[in-house]
RNA sequence: GGGGGAGUGUCCCGAGCGGCAAAGGGGGCGGACUGUAAAUCCGCUGGCUAUGCCUUCGUAGGUUCGAGUCCUACCUCCCCCA
């Protein structure tokens, strides 16, 4: 590990957040000397960030913790264009309404990690729509566009994939990197931002901003990127058993969020403790030491609880851990497993198993899939494997707790509750 | 403007002499083994009121008993020439 003098870079470095820095010594000196303002941009492509974005939020978190000023930039303007970096094909264009709604929804998560306000080390939430949407095309071309060389832009890896595959890269998308570069300069002017951070896929875009800053007379700007997140076996981060690992609670409950981290691969445990929890380094080292063989499961639970506590609060995290304990270790029924309510009268009339799994709980996508899962032995009702796809559920199937437990595989459970 | 090529299962990549619900991967899901891990092996991976019916190969027509496959027009993309 390189020996950084500043708290911020040392912390990021020892926790494994750093992939590339534009000028290590220069940036380190800056952080050691003064309060630095740094930002990360978030694109409003969905109503919630997912686990992949967590690493960026954690970087801002440490930035604030070490006494600097964090800026979370919402891409209300750039979202109208769409980032083509390393994408295979063009994104669907989003309407302004969708973008605004997504931003409003995404924002909710940030205050769990950062303290916002007007004070010197309070974080700020800024939307680049503030300046991008008012740009005058001709002025922009003359002031900013003239500093960009298309020859150079074409050489970036981020667009090469698209070009190599002979897929179209629209002029609209091609402009994304110019807008992002301009953002950096604008933030430098307005808020004295000196550093932009992001995933390693953003390197080209960030460096463009630094160059533009040179030409437009800002102070020296810096870039810092985090490694691309994959699990030890190479899968992309942020995909869970049933889709993306959303951060917003209304899209993914604390229990399911906890489960995602509980299922971390052995080889990732220590890395994730460093990246996603705020546990001190010496404690992480101690935990990693302990985690030999199946004892690692205890560490995984702690990992899951710590990460969930940061996002959803300590109480919700512990409730999730308890639900998991009851469900997996006692084989019992925990009241706060995901629950679907059905009218008591409907249950009295009988509900086909296939319909219960497909339509009621959505554990499987269709009756056909439910049928296939029955064939493969993947569905269970109250822990008994379903063998007959014509079986019908009724009040007789209610457990003493007054629910019916439906399971897909060993890990996904939903309770059916008559009301 | 002229010439040449491409678009396949709504996750992706990709084969496809006129009989095709469409090869093969990857990914995903389930099963076995385990530790709610990884690796490995096996099964599944259009929909439905289901020995049948419906919808799928860029879009719309046409030829044919029958079209992903042949013809026409259009859309989108790539390459070459102007």
Automatic annotation (TrEMBL):
GO terms for molecular function: tyrosine-tRNA ligase activity. SUPFAM superfamilies: Alpha-L RNA-binding motif, Nucleotidylyl transferase. Keywords: Aminoacyl-tRNA synthetase, ATP-binding, Cytoplasm, Ligase, Nucleotide-binding, Protein biosynthesis, RNA-binding. InterPro entries: aa-tRNA-synth_I_CS, aa-tRNA-synth_Ic, Rossmann-like_a/b/a_fold, S4_RNA-bd_sf, Tyr-tRNA-ligase, Tyr-tRNA-ligase_bac-type, Tyr-tRNA-ligase_bac_1. A motif ('KMSKS' region) lies at residues 236-240. L-tyrosine binds at residues 39, 176, 180. ATP binds at residue 239. It catalyses: tRNA(Tyr) + L-tyrosine + ATP = L-tyrosyl-tRNA(Tyr) + AMP + diphosphate + H(+). It comes from the Bacteria. Catalyzes the attachment of tyrosine to tRNA(Tyr) in a two-step reaction: tyrosine is first activated by ATP to form Tyr-AMP and then transferred to the acceptor end of tRNA(Tyr). This is Tyrosine--tRNA ligase. Its EC number is 6.1.1.1. It comes from Ancylobacter polymorphus. Homodimer. Pfam families: tRNA-synt_1b. PROSITE patterns: AA_TRNA_LIGASE_I, S4. HAMAP family: Tyr_tRNA_synth_type1. The gene is tyrS. Belongs to the class-I aminoacyl-tRNA synthetase family. TyrS type 1 subfamily. It is found in: Cytoplasm. A motif ('HIGH' region) lies at residues 44-53.
């Amino acid at each position: 590990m390189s020996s950084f003098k500043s708290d911020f870079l040392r912390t990021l470095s020892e926790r494994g957040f750093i992939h590339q820095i534009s000028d290590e010594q220069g940036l380190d000196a800056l952080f050691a000397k003064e309060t630095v303002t740094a930002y990360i941009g978030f694109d409003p492509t969905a109503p919630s960030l997912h686990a992949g974005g967590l690493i960026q939020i954690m970087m801002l978190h440490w930035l604030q913790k070490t006494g600097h000023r964090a800026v979370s930039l919402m891409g209300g303007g750039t979202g109208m264009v769409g980032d083509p970096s390393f994408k295979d094909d063009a994104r669907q264009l989003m309407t302004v309404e969708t973008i605004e709604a997504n931003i409003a929804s995404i924002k909710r998560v940030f205050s769990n990690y950062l303290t916002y306000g007007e004070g010197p080390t309070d974080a700020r939430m800024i939307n680049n729509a503030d300046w991008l949407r008012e740009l005058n095309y001709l002025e922009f071309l003359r002031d900013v566009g003239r500093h960009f060389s298309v020859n150079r832009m074409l050489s970036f890896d981020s667009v090469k994939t698209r070009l190599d595959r002979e897929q179209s890269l629209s002029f609209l998308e091609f402009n994304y990197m110019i807008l992002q570069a301009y953002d950096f300069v604008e933030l430098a002017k307005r808020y004295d931002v000196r550093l932009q951070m992001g995933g390693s896929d953003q390197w080209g875009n960030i460096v463009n901003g630094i160059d533009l800053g040179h030409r437009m007379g800002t102070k020296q700007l810096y870039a810092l990127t985090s490694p691309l997140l994959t699990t030890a076996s190479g899968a992309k981060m942020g995909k869970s058993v049933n889709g993306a690992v959303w951060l917003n609670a209304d899209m993914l409950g604390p229990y399911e969020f906890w489960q995602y981290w509980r299922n971390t691969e052995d080889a990732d445990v220590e890395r994730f403790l460093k990246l996603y929890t705020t546990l001190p380094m010496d404690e992480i080292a101690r935990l990693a030491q302990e985690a030999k063989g199946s004892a690692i499961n205890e560490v995984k639970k702690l990992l899951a609880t710590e990460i969930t506590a940061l996002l959803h609060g300590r109480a919700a995290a512990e409730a999730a851990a308890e639900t998991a304990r009851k469900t997996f270790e006692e084989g019992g029924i925990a009241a706060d497993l995901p629950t679907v309510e059905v009218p008591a009268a409907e249950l009295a009339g009988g509900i086909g198993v296939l319909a219960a799994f497909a339509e009621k709980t959505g554990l499987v996508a269709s009756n056909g899939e439910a049928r296939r899962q029955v064939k493969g032995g993947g569905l269970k009702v109250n822990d008994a494997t379903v063998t007959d796809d014509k079986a019908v559920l009724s009040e007789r199937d209610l457990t003493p707790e007054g629910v019916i437990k439906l399971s897909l595989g060993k890990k996904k459970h939903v309770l059916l509750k008559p009301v």
